[in-house]
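User: Before I run my own analysis I want an independent prediction to cross-check against. Here's the chain; please return only the structure tokens and, at the end, one sentence I can use as a sanity check.
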Amino acid sequence: MSEEKDIPAEENFTPESPPEEAASGQDIVTLTAAETSHTSIQTAAEDMEVHHAHLHHKKKWQDYLFEFFMLFLAVSSGFFVENLREHYVEHERAKEYAAMLRKDLQADTAIINIIVRFRIQQKKNLDTLSNIIKTTPYEKIDQQQFLRLSKSAGQYLHLLSSNGTLQQLKSSGSLRYFSDTSLVYALTSYEEDLKHADYVQNEESQHCAERVIPFKFKHFNDTFKDTSLSVAASKNFPQTGLVDFDKNTMMEFYNLLSKCTWYNEVLGYNSFEPHKNKATGIIEMLEKEYHLQ
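Assistant: Structure tokens:
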């Protein structure tokens, strides 16, 4: 009985698997899974490559035509927008120049109004002097009256035009901003009138400085300074000895007065009034074209 207890029962014995064999079996399972995953990824990639190749179909001529049209439309739109922008900028610049031109022309017309009034009075004085010399014997001339009137001889009032804006427009080529050709023509004509007036004004200045003023200094008595006195106040001065009177002197002075009268006519109402009207017309054109307030 004791021997039977020492021997374990065979039916309850279960042999365990060796550790090495178990580990080996696990590695095999893991390797198999990795190989399977790699194979699946490779297969999917091949499928994608095959599918992607089908996207690149051959273009038709309609496709090229459409792309060309879209490109042409984009470029044309860019040019169109740029032209609109340049037109807007040029119009704004033209409006600024128009306002500056109007200011210059308004200054010219104001000065011309003063000049015209001066020339009208100058004409009356010069005509009176000439009539005295022609109709009155020189020994009977009222010398004080003659001196008062002769103050006009050698005097002048010239137009210094405010043409800075016009010169700037010409030198910079900015006249192109004015699309109205009639406006450009009017400005050009106005400038030509200025040149002619300036030429005659220079001649008048030279005539007065070189001939009239020296003649008056030589033949008119310098002691009678104030020729603006009234007739009543001038009675306190002597009636003779104020002017070096003789026939030759009077004839020379008459010729000088004739030249002064001619310059006064050219640079007076007959010349500057049309000049002012032209400036006023340009102002109206600028205000209408660019809506100046």
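Sanity check: Confidence is low (pLDDT under 50) at residues 1-34, 49-54, 225-240.
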